[in-house]
């Protein structure tokens, strides 16, 4: 079972004119508002970090801003990147995303894989009971024997997004031992 796509980081550098465009377009004067409003509920304020640097150049001030955003869905990252490039054109520089897994997501993956393994064991036990004319009872013992996690190994040194996603995808497998109670076939008897 493969994990969901990992979290991604987006870095965008904005130029002074861009800051004015964002403020005018979004009725606010912070660059993160563009991402926050477009991103909806998927991009919360705590997932946006903004670093600003103001520098005096001859008779004007130049402000550079770096916006770092954490996404949980790769599609949302792509939508926002496309929107930023459309609005800000060549004045924006968007870095490649950095993929990683949070410890909470890894724990969620491990739990789900173990639950799937137990469900598969129960289904197999039901099939065997049906084959021999019995019915399956409750679980007596369930024990996780082994949990394995692995990442795809990089075949080549490609820097494409698809390759980065594949390299960052975590696979997990769980081996469980389960003992179930076996009940005799219940027959419909009428009371005399």
TrEMBL record:
Compartments in which it is found? Cytoplasm; Nucleus
Q: Which GO terms describe its biological process?
A: immune response; positive regulation of canonical NF-kappaB signal transduction
As for family, the record states: Belongs to the IRAK1BP1 family.
Query: May I ask which residue range the UniProt record assigns to the signal sequence?
Result: none
Q: Which organism is it from?
A: Eleutherodactylus coqui
According to its record, what are the GO cellular component terms? cytoplasm; nucleus
Record's protein name: Interleukin-1 receptor-associated kinase 1-binding protein 1
Principal location class: cytoplasm
* Cited InterPro entries: IRAK1BP1, SIMPL/DUF541
**This protein's superkingdom?**
Eukaryota
Would the keyword Chaperone be found if you checked this record's keyword annotation? no
What keywords is this UniProt entry annotated with? Cytoplasm, Nucleus
């Amino acid at each position: 079972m493969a994990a969901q796509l990992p979290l991604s980081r987006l870095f965008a550098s904005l130029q002074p004119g861009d800051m004015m465009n964002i403020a005018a377009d979004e009725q606010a004067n912070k660059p993160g508002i563009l991402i926050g409003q477009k991103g909806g509920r998927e991009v919360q304020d705590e997932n946006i970090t903004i670093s600003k640097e103001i520098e005096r150049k001859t008779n004007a001030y130049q402000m550079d801003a770096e916006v770092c955003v954490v996404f949980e869905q790769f599609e949302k990252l792509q939508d926002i990147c496309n929107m930023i490039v459309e609005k800000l054109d060549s004045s924006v520089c968007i870095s490649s995303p950095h993929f990683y897994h949070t410890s909470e997501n890894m724990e969620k993956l491990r739990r789900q894989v173990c639950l799937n393994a137990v469900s598969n064991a129960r289904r197999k036990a039901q099939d065997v009971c049906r084959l021999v004319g019995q019915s399956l009872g409750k679980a007596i013992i369930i024990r996780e024997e082994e949990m394995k996690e692995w990442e795809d190994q990089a075949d080549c040194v490609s820097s494409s997004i698809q390759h980065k996603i594949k390299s960052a995808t975590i696979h997990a497998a769980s081996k469980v031992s389960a003992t179930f109670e076996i009940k005799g076939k219940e027959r419909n008897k009428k009371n005399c």
